[in-house]
Structure formats: C-alpha cells, structure tokens
Specification:
It contains 12 helices and 23 strands. With 488 residues, the chain is of the alpha/beta class. The protein has 3 domains: 7-94, Nucleic acid-binding proteins (OB fold (Dihydrolipoamide Acetyltransferase, E2P)), CATH 2.40.50; 128-147 and 278-486, Rossmann fold (3-Layer(aba) Sandwich); 154-219 and 223-265, OB fold (Dihydrolipoamide Acetyltransferase, E2P) (Beta Barrel), CATH 2.40.50.1070. α1 (116-133) runs parallel beside α12 (446-458) and α3 runs antiparallel to α4. It starts with 29 loop residues before the first strand and ends with a strand. S-adenosyl-L-methionine binds at residues 319, 348, 353, 369, 395, 418.
Length: 488
C-alpha cells in the first residue's frame, strides 16, 4: 500500500499473522546440505511448512502442501529454519506454471505457482485460523474477487545504476534490497505495463540517471501519470523527460529534493495539472441517490447522479485494485443499509472511500482522519458531490480521544473502521460503552483484525458477516471485511 511520491509512514507490524516475516539474526547457513521433507501446509505468508526429523519447523519457499521436496536450508534460527527447494520429487495438483517470467526473482506476486482457487481458499483459511486463536468461530466467508489478473493501477519501480554503468528499472528481490531489472509486469494494468520498456530506454539515455531514485506509475480513468523521484533538477534530463511525456501521452510530475521533496508538474499534456480522481458508480453499489447533484463540479444529467468522484493528490492512499475496491464498498453498503436520517461515523476515512457513498444514500456521515490534509480532502470531495459529510481530525490511536469523539454524539447508528495495518485497537476498546448497533471493519492485516475482533466480542458484539477480498492477486496479502452487531 505504497503512496505516490512519498514513502508511506512506517508502522510497526503486528508480528502475529506470518504475512510479515519477522527480522531475526541469521545464525548459520546450510545451503549445501539437502534434506528430504514432506510439505504439510502453507504458512500465512504462503511458504510451505514442514518438520525435520527432530521436529523443528522448516519454512520452504515456493513449496505446496503434499509435495515431497529435497530442500537446502539457507537460514537457521533458534525455533525454525528457512529453506528453498533443490529438487521437487512430487508436485501438488494445485501447482501451476507461474504466468510471470520474473517469478522467484522479483519479490512481488509470490503465490503465482498456486492456482487461483487455492490462493483464495488459503486466504480464507488464514482468516479462520487467526480468529480461532482468539476463540472466535466464523460462519461462511464471502469472496470478493476481481476478474482480471492485470489489476494493479499503481506501482513504484526502483532505479539504480550498477557497477558497469547499466541502468536498472524494476522491483526488489525477495527479502533483499537488490533490484530485479524487468521489461514487463504481469499484474500491472495495460496502460502502465506498456510504459516499462520506454522508461528503460529513456533512463539509459539520461545524462545523470543516478539522480533518479524511483519512478511511480498511476493509471486512472482520466489520466496516466508518471512521477519521478529525483534528488535535484537537471536541465538536460528534464527536456528528455518532457519529450517522453509528450510521446507517451502521460502526465509527468517530478518530486525534487532529498529530505522534503516538492512536486513539480512539468509534462502534463501541455503543462496542466492532471485531475486525479476515483469514480464510484452508485448503481453498482446498490445505492439510489437521496438527492440529485446540481453543483457545477458534478457531471450533468442522470450519469452524474449515479457517480461519486473522489479527488486525491499524489501521496494520498488509493487502493491498487479499482474493481475489488468497488466490491468492498458495495459490501459495506449492503451490510449497513444506510438511509436518510441515520448517523454514521467513518473512522480512518481516507479520501472518503466509504463516507461519500454512504452519504449518497442519505445518511449523515462524520468522517474522521488523523491527517489534517485528508480532512481537507474529504471536505472538498463532499462539497463537490453535494453530500452531507462532516470531516474532523482526531488521533484515532488514542482511546481517550476516541472516547471523547464518540461522546459528542447522542446517537450513532453504525461505525465504519478502515484502519492501517496496525489496526483500530483504541476504537475497539471503547466501542462497547456506546452500544453502536453495527460496526463494519475493513482490514488489510487479519492478525490485528483478530485482536480487535476479540475486543468487540468481549464488549458484547457478535460477528455476523465475513468477506475476504482478493485485492492483491498472486500474493498472500488480503483485505478482510467483518460486520459486527451489538447484542449486549
């Protein structure tokens, strides 16, 4: 969940899910020693799990359940080892040929060797297991899947000049800072994938390619954007970037500076700043708009009344998979059934991804964000769409501040939680005091979700619905949606 032009603020990983490998000191390498093991299951991060003759756990890269494999241990730790396959003696029926030529080299899309049905079942199993650890039993889990493997509408590619003077463009290798040079990316939307070769060619002609740190790509319905992170300006290279933008018909921006880079739009179809916006279709969300828009900022006619537009800036968070994001919003709307006169609170509201569609159905929405810039963005988006959304800034990691925020409202019909990976523990610890009838929780980390769900259940809530969204195809990452209802 990277951001455009800025590094996303670091947050501590939960350490519970297995989706993020925990740092640990490497004590020994046994790469030249082979051991035959039987893979028992998948770890949460998608690696195969086996046990050696002493009973020690071994995590095996690219191994699938049921396979017999000769492995080499490349890292030995106190409680477990890490290994890779030297020879696969048997193959799982779930194994498929990875569609990307860089599989195993690039650090992304590390489940391509597992068929899609099994990938998605694995993600649902992870959620079920983590909830069970908290004593929570789930019913059926709905699946919110995308229809295309070419789904990723934003990406950041590293740029590096090697010892021979060759310019490399690509993604990091697994668990490494080494850059894997690529010519295409299987999961990028076509508008971005076709830019990789021209970008490689351009970078090779720059007078000072070492000034370029990375290149970020973004595709929306209205614009294709290339953002260059550069330490300082270079007049000769700037002219080459400008020519590239004109040839490829893209909007070009440059982040200049080392510590506090400043964005300059210098090649956006004649120099104009591009309009960046997320468009949500209310018809597809199952929403009949409570009132018709008349603002000059909105489109005219029936088409306008069925659309909600969320403008954003480089640096704002945007889900990488537009289709799955629309399905997640639709699911939350279906669960909460917003109606005129209802009071809803959206915590961690972002640019208004859930707030505005809920308000379009007639609900009065309080959208809360920790970042003041996002509060301004929500306000501008709600005004442009003529919706009843009040945006407010608050530190949602502080339970006392969350308590004060909720205490200001006599009646809250539903709460939406869409926190970062660190979760919404502060909010979940105080919600039980307010008897809010329904809580919809959207999580990108099932481990912190399980922790927070336990808080809610202890406070009198019950899990009513669960859905898993395959936001990041071919990876072990997932989005989980849960509906809680207060029973006292």
């Amino acid at each position: 969940m990277a951001m455009l032009g800025k590094r996303r603020p670091s947050r501590p990983a939960s350490g519970h899910s297995g989706l993020v490998r925990q740092p640990s000191r490497k004590t020994e390498s046994k790469d030249d020693i082979s051991t035959t093991l039987v893979v028992e299951r998948l770890a949460h991060d998608g690696r195969g799990v086996a046990h050696n003759v002493e009973g020690k756990t071994v995590f095996i890269d690219q191994a699938l359940p049921g396979e017999h494999v000769d492995v080499a241990i490349h890292v030995t730790r106190k409680r477990y080892d890490e290994a890779h396959i030297k020879n696969r003696l048997t193959s799982s029926e779930q194994r498929v040929e990875p569609p990307c030529a860089y599989f195993g080299q690039c650090g992304g899309c590390d489940l391509q060797h597992l068929n899609l049905t099994a990938q998605r079942q694995h993600k649902r199993d992870v959620v079920t297991e983590l909830m069970a650890r908290q004593g929570l039993t789930l019913g059926p889990i709905a699946a919110l899947d995308g229809s295309s493997e070419h789904y990723r509408r934003r990406a950041r590619l590293g740029v590096r000049v090697d010892g021979q003077g060759n310019v490399l463009l690509g993604f990091r290798a697994p668990n490494s800072h080494r850059l894997v040079d690529i010519e295409q990316c299987h999961v990028l939307v076509p508008a971005l994938n076709k830019l990789i070769l021209p970008l490689r060619q351009l970078l090779a002609t720059l007078a000072s390619p070492r000034l370029v740190g990375h290149v970020e790509l973004l595709a929306t319905d209205e614009a294709t954007v290339v953002l260059v992170r550069q330490l300082k300006a270079h007049d000769q290279d700037r002219a080459r970037w400008q020519q590239f933008a004109e040839q490829q018909q893209v909007s070009l921006g440059t982040w200049l500076g080392r510590e506090t880079p400043v964005l300059h739009w210098n090649g956006a179809h004649g120099g104009a700043t591009p309009v960046l916006q997320e468009v949500l279709n209310l018809d597809e969300l199952g929403i009949q708009r409570a009132s018709s828009p008349t603002s000059e900022h909105c489109l005219s006619g029936d088409k306008a009344s069925s659309l909600v537009t969320l403008r954003f800036s480089p640096g704002d968070f945007l889900q990488v998979n537009a289709e799955v994001n629309q399905k997640m919003v639709a699911q939350v709307v279906a669960w909460l059934k917003p109606a005129p006169g209802q009071q809803l609170v959206d915590l961690f509201a972002g640019i208004g991804n859930f707030s505005l569609p809920l308000a379009a159905a007639g609900a009065k929405v309080l959208a809360v964000e920790g970042n003041p810039a996002m509060v301004e963005r929500i306000t501008a988006n709600s005004d442009a769409n003529l919706l009843d959304v009040h945006a407010q800034q608050a530190d949602l990691s502080d339970a006392k501040k969350v308590q004060m925020l909720l205490s200001e409202h006599q009646q809250i019909d539903a709460i939406v939680l869409d926190p970062p990976r660190s979760g919404a523990e502060a909010a979940c610890q105080v919600l039980g005091s307010y008897n809010v009838p329904r809580v919809a929780y959207i999580s990108c980390d099932p481990a912190t979700l399980a922790r927070d769900a336990a808080h809610l259940v202890h406070a009198g809530y019950r899990v009513k619905q669960v859905a898993v969204a395959d936001m990041f195809l071919h990876t072990a990452h997932l989005e989980t949606l849960m509906l809680f209802e207060y029973e006292g």
